[in-house]
Amino acid sequence: MPISQVPIDSEPVCYPIPDDGPAGQLLAAMGRHPFRPAHIHFMISAPGYRTLITHMFFEGDEFLESDAVFGVKPSLVVRPELQGGTGTVEYNFGLARELNPGSNRPPSFVAANNKRSPG
Ligand SMILES: [Fe+2]
How big is the chain by its Cα radius of gyration, in Å? Predict the structure, then answer.
């Protein structure tokens, strides 16, 4: 697989999901807040592989343990390191081979083989 570098020109921040409807009522009933930890979404595709849709979270975010939509997995939490004054993350995304090209299988949602996984 080719290695790609994706420049991120702004710092991701946490945000609340819409909580003025049924989702907000459900969260309130459970005593939960509506916030998601800061994250970056990825959709990665390559010929012969299933499309991967995932996201990456950042170590130290106050909402990692209480994401309103339960999307945080330890393998998706990264710690950027400063390189030349820029926060940098190296992450290995694992794509599953498409066994039936042209099928309408849904995208894969699990990133595998993250060598920096803390857990
Ligand atoms: Fe998001």
Answer: 16
How far apart are the CA of 81 and the centre of ligand 1, in A?
Answer: 22
Domain presence at residue 116: yes
In this structure, what CATH number is given to the domain that contains residue 41?
A: 2.60.130.10
The answer to whether position 31 is within a domain reads no
Question: Into how many domains does the chain fold?
Answer: 1
**DSSP states of 99-116:** SSTT--PPPB------TT
Rounded to the nearest whole angstrom, what is the distance from the C-alpha of residue 49 to the centroid of ligand 1?
24
Q: What is the CA(42)–ligand 1 centre distance, in A?
A: 10
pLDDT tier at 115 (50, 70, 90 boundaries)?
very low
Residue 96 CA to ligand 1 center (angstroms) comes to: 23
Q: pLDDT grade, residue 70 (50/70/90)?
A: very high
